[in-house]
Design brief:
Elements (H helix, E strand, L loop, with lengths): L5 H11 L2 H8 L5 H14 E3 L6 H14 L6 E6 L6 E7 L2 E7 L2 H4 L2 H19 L4 H13 L6 H26 L2 H13 L6 H14 L13 H14 L4 H9 L9 H18 L8 H10 L13 H8 L3 H16 L7 H12 L3 H11 L4 H16 L17 H10 L1
Parallel strand pairs: 2-4
Antiparallel strand pairs: 1-2, 3-4
Helix pairs in contact: 1-7, 2-7, 4-6, 4-8, 6-8, 6-9, 7-8, 8-11, 9-11, 10-11, 11-12, 13-16, 16-17, 16-18, 17-18, 17-19
Length: 419
């Protein structure tokens, strides 16, 4: 049974909470004159397949509609003129579907492959019709925001991922109609490469090799996932159904990359940064006016937390983060270590200790060495000198960021640095 993917629901829920925006887009209706204009343009630039002369195509449309529960949907199929690029697309206006082929798709594909392509396109309408049309509304919202040049990069990334998950969903629709993953995969590869013959089995093996060689491979194209990801995703879904979702999500999203944050990962990183800063700035001696001013440049509503404690969950989050996120956190530490000269060497010593405690020592050392232009020897001298200055500061128990197994960490690690 076809179900909306988790990412579709996340985007829907995100914008549904923005009542004014949601109501505006949900109220938009396609006007009759818009539909008439679109049809006129299609007729000018395409060949319209005839239900009688091209019965084979429309028989496949009928079969796909029946399998997808879209029996009442009017569908017209066209062949685009003036282009050799192979593609298939669908437009849904005023409860009518218009499928446009471009290039030599009808000559290149077998009967089952053509059925798979038609079913894939019609599954877009299946998605739009689910949940009272809420997913179609959500798609229009995120695409409109991402299309505005003033929008944040996170919205563009959210739109990209939404489309990627939509292609994965539509491949499942094609599989549901055809009943075989091979035509779904071979049609995908043929359209992409123009080859007359391809092997689905060989392509799946190729996809497996890619993921075996690089565990952080993820989708990075704008309108479609890389074809090997789509092929592997439909193979996994064929084998495991809904149980395949976590592995498919990992394929598409991978680790959170600082340069590819969607609106959800952006929010998660903001929460991590706030928690990270509250831990770093827990000692009362670190809360000077200059340091506080810098903290409020990160978060206008930043507040200190006297009760925050370094825990295993945060250690795991930092330890499993993408290298770009770990570097980012390292530069956050460097910001605060350098900002207030009146605190002298103490913040730097505490930053070295904190980096060790939160499993970012190598990252922070590399950043300090690079930004301060230190040799390995000078780095170690700087580290020992600043940590000695920090150790002279007597923090009371409430200022400690450790508890339990962390109680003796300060003493032991300082001793290790000095040895």
């Amino acid at each position: 049974m076809l179900q909306a993917l988790p990412y579709h629901l996340k985007v829907r829920d995100h914008f549904a909470r923005q009542t004014s925006t949601w109501n505006f887009f949900a109220a938009v209706k396609t006007k009759e004159e818009q539909l008439a204009s679109y049809k006129t343009e299609l007729l000018k630039n395409t060949y319209k397949f005839d239900a009688t002369a091209d019965a084979g195509i429309y028989e496949k449309v009928v079969k796909a509609k029946a399998k997808l529960g879209l029996e009442e949907l009017p569908v017209t199929v066209y062949q685009a003129q003036y282009t050799d690029e192979m593609n298939a697309s669908i437009v849904y206006l005023n409860n009518e579907a218009h499928i446009v082929f471009s290039g030599r798709i009808t000559q290149l594909l077998s009967e089952d492959e053509l059925l798979a392509i038609l079913a894939h396109e019609l599954t877009h309408i299946k998605l739009y019709s689910m949940l009272q049309g809420e997913l179609e509304t959500a798609e229009r919202i995120i695409m409109a925001i991402a299309g505005n040049y003033n929008s944040e990069a996170a919205y563009f990334e959210t739109a990209r991922l939404y489309r990627l998950y939509t292609e994965i969903f539509c491949d499942r629709g094609a599989y549901t109609v055809v009943g075989d993953i091979n035509p779904v995969i071979t049609s995908l590869v043929k359209v992409a490469t123009g080859l007359d013959k391809v092997s689905a089995e060989s392509y799946i093996k190729q996809a497996e090799e890619i993921f075996t060689a690089a565990s952080d491979v993820k989708a990075s194209t704008v309108s479609h996932p890389e074809n090997f990801i789509r092929a592997r995703a439909i193979q996994l879904w064929h084998e495991k159904q809904e149980a395949a979702e976590p592995e498919i999500i990992q394929m598409i999203e991978g680790l959170t990359d600082l340069d590819q944050l969607d609106v959800f990962k952006q929010k998660e990183l903001l929460q991590l940064t706030r928690q990270f800063m509250q831990l770093l700035l827990k000692p009362s001696w670190f809360r000077s006016n200059v340091v506080t001013s810098l903290a409020k440049q990160y978060f206008a509503d930043f507040s200190f937390d006297d009760n925050i404690i370094l825990n295993e969950q945060l250690l795991e989050t930092v330890g499993q983060s993408h290298a770009s996120i770990r570097d980012y956190l390292g530069y956050v530490m460097l910001d605060f270590a350098l900002v207030d000269g009146e605190l002298e060497q103490v913040p730097f010593g505490w930053a070295f200790q904190f980096a060790e405690s939160i499993q970012l020592a190598d990252v922070f050392d590399a950043i300090v060495k690079k930004e301060l232009q230190l040799t390995d020897k000078k780095l170690q001298q700087h580290k020992q000198k600043t940590m000695a200055a920090w150790y002279k500061i007597k923090e009371n128990e409430k200022e400690q960021v450790y508890e339990g197994e962390f109680d003796n960490l300060k003493m032991s690690q300082f001793e290790n640095e000095g040895s």
